[in-house]
Design goal:
Length: 213
């Protein structure tokens, strides 16, 4: 078992760590939202797992590659850990204001980085990178909201997909400035996180489409 762990540790890189952290953060947001709907533990796990893996799954299918979570059990364990965290610390999480928003924003920032780097690794141009990064960051939350009978945050008057686009632009800008890869990754994720919080705090959003009376 120790040898297996060492072998796994040797194979992971910084991007993998970002993906693991993003999976945990998005799973927390999914489980936390599920708990507000009084679903059972299994239902909460499913919602958390779908939140964490939905976007990356669609991205990988579009890239004609095996969905990332089928290659390692780590992502399922991240979701289990998120579920246990919510179960054990539910009262503390409820008392903290905007717990869902914080974890959702962390996951969004980290997954924008993962989606951006994976699209670039496949050699796609900027506009495709934007689409795939946005898919990576948003599709899981769309599925989550549909599963709990909510209008997806991406379709409400809220900066969600737009934040992903800003994130990709920031990533390219930092690359242009010739910053090191870890610095680019961290600053991009942090920028997405901050922009999302500011957009929510100041209620920034796109105009809504309404029927004429």
């Amino acid at each position: 078992m120790v040898d297996t762990f060492i072998e796994f540790y040797d194979k992971i890189n910084f991007v993998d760590l970002i993906e693991f952290c993003g999976t945990f953060a998005f799973a927390i947001s999914g489980v936390r939202l599920a708990s507000a709907k009084s679903v059972d533990w299994f239902g909460a796990f499913v919602i958390g797992f779908v939140t964490a893996t939905g976007g990356g799954t669609l991205r990988d299918l579009l890239l004609n590659t095996t969905p990332f979570w089928l290659l390692s059990s780590v992502y399922a364990w991240c979701t289990i850990l998120a579920l246990l965290t919510v179960i054990l610390f539910r009262k503390q999480l409820v008392r903290l204001n905007n717990t869902f928003l914080w974890f959702d924003s962390i996951g969004l920032g980290l997954f924008v980085v993962v989606g951006t780097e994976k699209a670039i690794a496949f050699g796609y141009p900027f506009w495709v990178v934007v689409i795939l990064a946005t898919i990576t960051g948003t599709v899981g939350s769309i599925i989550r909201d549909i599963m709990i009978n909510e209008i997806p945050a991406m379709f409400r008057q809220e900066w969600y997909a737009l934040v992903c686009i800003f994130g990709v632009m920031i990533y390219y800008g930092l690359i242009y400035l010739k910053m090191s890869e870890p610095v680019v990754q961290v600053l991009t994720a942090a920028s997405v996180f901050v922009i999302r919080l500011l957009a929510t705090r100041y209620k920034l959003g796109l105009p809504t489409l309404k029927d004429e009376d």
